[in-house]
Fold this protein.
Amino acid sequence: MKAAPFEYLVADAIDDVTTGLADFGDEATIIAGGQTLVPLMAMRLARPALLIDVNGIPELQGIDQAAGGVRIKACTRQSDALASPIIAQRVPLLAKALPYVGHAQTRNRGTVGGSIALGDPAAEIPLVATALDARITLQKLASTREIPIRGFYEGPMMTSIEPDECITEILFPPWQEEGRRGTGFQEVSLRHGDFAIVAAAAQVIMGEDGVCRRAAVALGGVAGFPFCLTAAEDALTGTVIDDPAVAAAGAAVDGAVDPQNDLHASAGYRRRVAKVLVERVIREAAQEAAGGAPGDHP
Amino acid sequence: MSEPARRNLVHISRKRRVKEDKRFVSGTGCYVQDVVPPGTRHVAVLTSPYPRARIISIDWQKAAALDGVHAVVTGEELAARTAPLHQALNLPHVVWRPLAVAMVRYAGEWVVAVAAETEHIAEDALDLIEVEYEPLPAILDPEEAMAEDAPLVHPEHGSNILYRGVFTWGPVAEDFEAADHQLTFRARWGRSSTVPIETFGVLAWWREGTDTLDIWASIQMPKYAEQIASALGIPLNNVNVHHDVDVGGAYGVKRGIKHTVLAGYLSRKLGAPVRLIEDRLVNLAGGDAHGPDRIFDTEVAFTSDGIITSLKIRAIDDAGAYPGRGPYQLAKPITAITGPYRINSVRYEAISITSNKTGQVPVRGFGQAPTNYMLETAVDKVAQNLGMDRLEVRRRNFIRSDEFPYTIPSGTAYDSGDYHAVLEKVLDLATYDDLLERRDQRRADGVLAGVGIATCLEPSGGNTMFEHLMYPGAEITTFMEACQVRIDSQGAITAIMGTSSSGQGHETLVATILGEELERDPDDIRVIHASSREGLPTLAPVASRMAIMLGGAAAGAARKLRDQMIRIAAHNLEVPPTELEYSGGTVFARFDHAAKLSWREICFIAHNQSHKMPEGLEPGLQAIHVFQVPGGGKLPDDQNRVQLYPCFAFQAHIPFVEIDPGTGKVTIIAYFIAHDCGTIINPDIVRGMVIGGAAQGIGAALYEKFVYAPDGQFISGTFADYVLPSIFEIPYIEVTEHCTPSPLTSHGQKGTGEGGYLGAPAAIASAVNDALAPRGLSLHELPMRMADIEELLNGGDRI
Amino acid sequence: MKPGTITLEVNGRLRSATAEPRLTLLDFLRYALHLTGTHMGCEHGVCGACTVMFDGSAVRSCLMYAFQAQGHQVTTVEGLCDGDGTPGRIQEAFQEAHGLQCGYCTPGMLISAFALLQSTPDPSDDEIREALGGNLCRCTGYAQIIDAVRLAAVSLKGAGG
């Protein structure tokens, strides 16, 4: 399993990247963490003529916070994101999801931007980014644009990124609503650390009166890309999150998903489990917001 | 052969570091991938994307012209210059070669081989080869394969049935007639195997100047050198297999025949060393990887008291396109066809099928694991049918400890055992009643929880006369192992074993036994591996045989050396040998301890002072012992009854599982094993074998399956799809021991390498079914994957 | 695609060799630098047999190209030994607890254990599992590996870290 031959370029700055992409078009591929790209190349499923290494670009590393939200530079290691007090405080849903992303050894190389760019339909980071309405900055030689992640994905591993664009950062905007925040993240995978078969993420803000001010509920692994279950969000917003509310949110799943069969699980499995996980993450988020410990899940 | 129970053991059964571990933790093991002499050519293989197709043309000119490519070989060339690979059964029309000729018969079959300067260039060359195929309908289901109009995998064989035999031992018809009850069930063992982390690899180096084909390989294969020599048409004593290659796990599967014949052929053609290392894609699809793939239809006759009187078993096994030794995995289980139970009669029908799937290789247990899964399912079903406790049914049916040696209907005598005691030990270890309470409490919490119980017999020692049952006329009755021991002029002990090792700690085994017999420190004893041409008779570490057979050979050699030393001392002390004592390597006169010769003195005499040597003793101190399997040497009688393996270890497993009803995910909360392998030579090695085998069994029960799509594409091609359990999926397994020594072995030891793998799938199935029982559901097909369980619980389409 | 020279620090020493860009760090360590202790199990980043330390973190060397290691620091299993090849404390603990059988996954396990014990000298069993969850073993069933890491933790504490 040896890769096909390629040229290798170490980029020192973002301009090196965008220039290389502009010159080589779809013959060039960025290598960041490489945790998905390198196996694809070993199997010769990917055969870029040029690999542009972005690991040495300082402007692509780092996490910071401002009024506009938490900014994670694209080449930030998943392990650094997991260890980040800023993310733990400000984007707790991401902090909750990160331990599910592969293993310690893959998180030591894998990057936040790399996961976003790959767009695996079951991946945890794109799921959380979708749930939290993150925004991505894409840079090319002549220009930069910032777009919402909702709409960035067009299909399984297909994004609207242009051949000469590079993701430079991901912004998680803050939620402005008053109240207590709670998060829920659940996934089903074959083994601990494997890609999710189905994953669900939720975040709620609960008012003092126990009414939900705002809810985000998103699913991964049951469509071409992660998406928000807006009907579920509507079912929760403005109401107490009791059993009927949770059931109403769960009922929204069936019509919204379009899962696939594969050797590990049928479409039917994914459909049924998606509903189970949505209900669980909502309960988890609601309980956390209420100050209780997460429920005793089986 | 064994000595009577005697003095306390000094080294055997004591905690001792495993010698081999030192080189492995230092990163200084020598595996086949580490053997790369200058000038080595590297091989890559192009494989078939189709399960069944005619090869219309192969265009490899561009590949051959690529810079750095040394050879491109197709099946035609190889077929002209080598003999077909050996099939274990008598199947003249099933022709197996390293590279396909005219037809491909499984997705992943090797079609073209390239040898190049590097693996990278070899793979670049593969990209330049164009093969034109005419795809044909494939046969993928063993029951469909048996139909009259099924497409034939090997047309000249005339059918897809490679073997069909029926064995009847005892009054089956009468026992069924007389039984109070009968039940019937089907159990399915999905295609999986023990998949080592190191793939198979070989470095073959043909040097005309020395008339030698040197082979370094990650190998665990009886008669490996013989098969290579035969296929390449060279004398056996031109083949030199280096057994001092460390093997990164084998557990049965590393057979390497097609790889080695291909590499050997290329080496001769190129006049250079040739290296073929399976990458993981090649390994999982078409390497040495797939194991039993079996359907059992079983009828059980039993009394109202839960006594099982008779079994009718039909086993259909899909051996794949090129079965090799695979079909014998249907016959080996005959050695314990009734398990640990006093079942009066058995009818056993074994059917081996060929299909357009990868050929099957032997896997740990050689067919015993699927069979035990079926047997334990039968016992649980009897219990369920009668509303009787699963433990009670077992207790009533176990062979009793005072009944050994116990001969089962198929003619094998079990040497020793106390199954009731082992069962009590595991119940104790598991605090069984508390465990049931815990289970019931979890059920009250709304969780699916189950406690499983399964036992298994581990036949060990390797008398494989079952080959004769499936292939009458084979008449092979020698199953031996050898050990040569030398004491050098300085008194240091070196032992030589004749085969490779893959983590079983054979060097430690031999050193410990020699240390015990010669009363010297095992840590000072060096154990090395002879090459095949250095010629110690061996049958490789299969059949859970090495503690018994290599141990017996080592003990035999040690006893010969001790006798030699006593004779030298007798001669020099002028005292008859009967008046001498041997202690710690010193020999002294019983009546006068001052009259003695030390170890060093005896060694010096033996090597240097022929004038002090007794008549008839050769110079030096060396002995070889070739140990024939106990109970071996007999052919089956006219009822197909014969003694198979000599020694029977026994295990009882109790897992406690919880199942998430929403997702089907199984979590093993706790796992307890009690085992009896007779005398334990090294406690750490034995514990590792028990737990490691159980972990592989958990994989087979819950995670692992080689999957083919309906069109015959092989879709579990990577470790993302063939799922090996990690440290998260395997609980910390608690183990306790019992000991019923074997009367047949040097120190009472039995084998222990397979038992975990034989017991765990049955035990996990028992636990999962216990968890599903309150819902009135059960599952009798392995693996029981998460989605399989959820689908059973919540309905919906099958995967 | 021309080969180039890669220079990096391996096990505390500066090492150099030529390689083409597509050579993985694993193959570079094994075949260009002759450090055969690190093993190939799958080449697609699942089994962990290839685990090495890279700038102080455990990574899968089959998922990096050698050129990406230019100028960086790598520790392999050989680097866990003392200068004269004597096994270090973690390796001693694995021997004492027999946390291995065939030895093939062992170098990767040792590196992951080393990484764990550097950051977490007194790990819980959950932390041990988390650290070793990406290293597959087929021989041991993991129990004796857990024993070995617990023992290594004790041993390192006794030695003052």
Summary: The two ends of chain C are 46 Å apart (CA to CA). Helices of chain C lie at 25-32, 89-96, 106-119, 125-132, 143-158.
